[in-house]
Amino acid sequence: MALILDNEAAGGGAAGAPADVVKDVDTQSFVTDVIETSMNTPVIVDFWAPWCGPCKQLTPMLEKLVRQAAGAVRLAKVNIDENQALAGQLRVQSVPTVYAFVGGQPVDAFVGAQPESQIKVFIGRLTGGAPSPVDEMLDHAREVLAGGDSQGAAQLYSQVLNEDPVNAAAIAGLVRCFIALGEIDAARQMIDGLEPDVAAKEDVRAAASAVELAGQGSDTGDIGGLRAQVAADADDHQARYDLAVALYGAGQAEAAIEELLEMVRRDRTWNEEAARKQLLKVFDSLGTSDPLTVASRKRLSSILFS
Question: Does the annotation mark 177 as catalytic?
């Protein structure tokens, strides 16, 4: 089954954010674009300079998160080299400096580059803590995928990526949609095409592990036949290993873990600890905070150190 991603249907943005939520503002337009606009919508003012290294990291992040907010907040960018008087009026002594205006008045601020998580908190204070439309769409996509509609989930993840092409959660989700649809090669190509910093994010690494395991599952035998082999000889480690791989490939992660744990109990050194290593790959694919991972890691430790 081919996965169809309709970029036109996605509307070019995850939540239809207005095109003018990010503006370059100068002294002449400050009253209109910041003071007056903030009477109805919070405005974040980013004071920056072309020579400022941290600004080159912070400004794109602000733009991305403001666009994800889909109109709930706006961004005004002020080049201090071209607007020194305005920067002086607001006592900007270094860049980047960021102010938040509400009701025509500055209500919050920070100086220096900040991690994305802190900027989300900053924006959350301005929007009353409401989740961004992108976050809501990601939550919806997860529910749709968990409900078995991989195609529908893929469309939602694609809409998020139209707005934020390096959104780790959306990339990982789309990869898992490819896997669920049997498009293992497409999933692998997507992972292989990522920049190193994106590929290193936890969600994406977990999805990459899932791709590797799914690829293994296509090379094993029939689950019923493998079960019969294990039932006939409980110490047929190769058959049990192949059964675990096939189970994971069929979406039965918990059953796969049970077989691998049983292998570790029976002979942890078989094939250079293949069962333990496979378990670690499964844990990576599920994610470190997944309840099944947490519980199964404890069981593995109990077996290894008993």
Answer: no
Instruction: Say which of 22, 25, 55, 300 is annotated catalytic.
Output: 55
Domains and CATH numbers, the chain: 10-126 (3.40.30.10), 134-201 (1.25.40.10), 223-304 (1.25.40.10)
Mean pLDDT over each residue of the chain, to the nearest integer: 89
Direct distance between the N- and C-terminal alpha carbons of the chain, in angstroms, rounded to an integer: 47
pTM: 0.67
What phi and psi values does residue 261 have, to the nearest 5 degrees? -65, -40
CA atoms of 277 and 187, how far apart (whole Å): 22
The region that residue 271 occupies, defined by phi over 0 for left and psi between -120 and 50 for alpha, beta otherwise, is: left
**Annotated catalytic, 55?**
yes
Of the listed 15, 52, 113, 141, which one is catalytic?
52
Mind listing the pLDDT tens digit for each residue in 259-294? 999 999 999 999 999 999 999 999 999 988 899 999
